[in-house]
Amino acid sequence: MRLLLIEDEIDLAYQLERFLIKRQYHVTVCNNLNDSLLALSNQVYDAVLLDRLLPEGDALKDIARIKKHHDGFMLVMSALGEVQDRVAAFNRDVNYYLSKPIDFDELLAILEQFERKITQTASSNPSVRAENASSSWYIKRKRLYSPDQLVIQLTAREAMMVELMIAEFGQLVTRSALIMAMNQDPINYDSKALDSAVYRIRHKIEQATGQSVPFETVHGVGYVWHD
């Protein structure tokens, strides 16, 4: 699993990096927000581990900027451990809030739980296909394969969305269904975040294949995968 660690305490960043690499994680370390945004624009990460207090200030204020590039798992680490601090993070769609000093075993348990969830989703339906007379698309372990076997790397949430659309080939998949596929609450989920996720999927497919996307938008309602 590929992780982006955003931590400005050099010693702690080094310790976490060594700890996670020994557990077979691929880790990229950034010490400030600007470097992390650049990293996110160039690489897909399964999870982001974010120090709340960075040189630029309170990172919670920049969650929206991070989510433009990453809509997957996010864990915030902070010495600010009061209830209101945690609530502020969860209100920004953060998955976990881990108080400092970091308990490395607790961090590992959280990551392993997230990884098991991804694995269970994949194993329950490891390869979903949509086929017609001339072409087929399928998704496996967060990789979308075009009819020409071009590989498109997706984030965990993007993969959940695409997997549902492919499974419902030719049928309307509502916006609410896609939100629930990402394990989110349709009532409280920001619809603009869904639009952004769909845009990123479209962009990745078009960039990789040079072709139009294999699904169409039913404006305000949902999407139909049609090859």
From TrEMBL:
Determine the domain of life of the protein's source: Bacteria
Q: Which residues bind DNA?
A: 125-227
Its GO CC terms are: cytosol; protein-DNA complex
Ranges for domain Response regulatory: 2-115
One Pfam family, please name it: Response_reg
**Stretches assigned to the OmpR/PhoB-type domain:** 125-227
Q: Which CDD domains match?
A: trans_reg_C
Question: Which PROSITE patterns does its entry note?
Answer: OMPR_PHOB, RESPONSE_REGULATORY
Give the sites modified to 4-aspartylphosphate.
51
> GO molecular function terms here?
phosphorelay response regulator activity; transcription cis-regulatory region binding
Keywords, in A-Z order: DNA-binding, Phosphoprotein, Transcription, Transcription regulation, Two-component regulatory system
Give the record's GO biological process terms: regulation of DNA-templated transcription
Name the SUPFAM superfamilies for this protein.
C-terminal effector domain of the bipartite response regulators (SSF46894), CheY-like (SSF52172)
What's the protein here called? Two component transcriptional regulator, winged helix family
